[in-house]
Amino acid sequence: MSAEPILSVSGLSVRFSKPRPLAHQLLGHPRQEVRALNGIDLAVARGETLGIVGESGCGKSTLARCLAGLVTPTEGEIRFRGERLADLRGKDRRAYNRRVQLIFQDPYSSLNPRMTVGDMLSEALTVHRMRSGSGVDERIGELFELVRLPQDARDKYPHEFSGGQRQRIAIARALAVEPECLIADELVSALDVSVQAQVVNLMLDLQDRLGLTVLFVAHDLRLVRHVSHRVAVIYLGSVVEIGPSETVFSAPRHPYSQALLAAAPTLEVKEGRKTPALSGELPSPLAIPPGCPFHIRCPYAAERCRREKPALLPHGGGLAACHFAEEIAAGTQPVRKAEPQPA
Amino acid sequence: MPSAAYLLSRLLQIVPTFLLVMVFIFLFVRLLPGDPAIAMAEAKASDQQLAEIRERMGLNEPLAVQFGYFVKNTVTGDLGRSILMKRPVAEVILERLPVTVYLSLYAVALSVLVAAPLALFAATRANGPADIAIRGLFQVGLSMPVFYIGLVLLTVLGAKLRLFPVGGYGRSFIDNLYHLALPALSIALYTSAILMRNLRASLVEVLDSEFVQFARAKGLPRRIVLTRHVLRNALVSAVTLLGLSIGNLMSGTLVTETVFAVPGVGRLMLEAIFARDYPLIQGLTLTFAVIVSLTFLATDIVQSWLDPRLRQA
Predict the structure, then answer these.
(1) What is the count of residue pairs from A and B with beta carbons less than 8 Å apart?
(2) What are the ABC transporter domain coordinates in residue numbering (chain A) (predicted)?
(3) Domain assignment present for A335
């Protein structure tokens, strides 16, 4: 990474304690903890797009919510331009809330159904005292132009728009306050494929014009490859591989990244599978396996993987958290025999 | 605001409702065993007197024609004469109605005043000790019948502590706040329990929705998030429930007004039923139906004001 990171995260962990019914407490069941994030390290440079991929339940959305300040991390810290988010108070905290904006996955539940689009945008503008009086109206007009919405959208309610239009409203709402960093949590996964490209291209275009930093959280690998400069692969709340987009996609080092890519549908007809498919389910974040969190499902797992959690180390052009990253890339790591699946 | 077209279409919907109500009331008297003339006449009426009554009441006409008369009379405000009171039914009802309306609105106001702050308090502390305590307390309120709550209030606050009068109706608006406190409270305890549960549930749901999270993330002050984004969305189902419970409340006044000796239409209905005063029962049923329909109309209008998605009906 060349430039100074605008947003960085180190050792970020989030644990939620699972609500325990009274009956369980009386029976002496132990308190259960969901470990949503386990020591995430990331940094994003100004103007960069970092793609964040992983299966559902791996902690992608928790990460996005932490960065937006909606979830307080249990451990670790988030730094914005070198300042710790946890230390920001009052005016500084409000400034952070303005500079880092979140766009949600579902354009149906993320817009207040009782507010007109104009009201939503002007609320954002007035809260941060960005504009006042006629300046607000003017800015709303600009924003509509920016996200290609008709000017008469102002007095309409969210239900009068399609999914794609709603997501553009959400983008306009986030852009209203002139943020420096956008966190797009599954920006287009709720939209029709035909509209997805439209919205993604709009975001890329805006990023170019406004010099935005974007964290693109998604599970669609092809989409992430298309938009991101760098990609981080998350498994069970930890980064298992991070690197330049092309490197991760063309020569993945971590067996989990390989499996994800192998599972993604392509148009090319392949002769058999190069990499074994992923078996089993994502383990429960209530009970994360010891050692490498991936060893239960990993086709290459060896004894060492059961004992020792691999660190995120440089391999190829990026970083990977695998004891056998080099061997796997070279094709010398033996594939273990499939263990009999429990019935 | 709801459009004029919406208001008009909603008002027009009332016409068939009222017609249907009148069909039911009309048939109800005709379906009773015996004939209406016997019901209306004095006990010792002769056959000739009965025939006269039939002729006078138009009972010899075809059913459809009779219904026409009934509608015409009702619309012009002629509901017949009460057998019990020996006065026009409309007059008797109009005299007693304000008492019941006062009591109902008093009870509704009390329930909202109790339910809304507690629901907000509980929802913002969902599943914490305060939330569980509040919900538990209201569960108890919900499990007790209104007349029982009424009797307990009457005994404790009225007879033992002498804080409130045990019954009757006052002379002025302010006086009635005091006189009707116990009956209103006993209705309100039940209604507010339902309202509290419903409002709390929808508040919890809205508090968790993404647009509220976004409002928080963008740094909107907590108070504004709660009023502008949360309450307005959570109120829709509570308003529906409140409208429905006013319908319930009308039949509840039969019991409450009797327990607390309040001279409203609820107690009048009970008296009319015991006296088999059919014209009065008919008139009161119609009155209740009108009140309930108007309440639902008001509910719909408030809802369409709260929720723009409902305006295109």
Answers:
(1) 59
(2) 9-261
(3) no
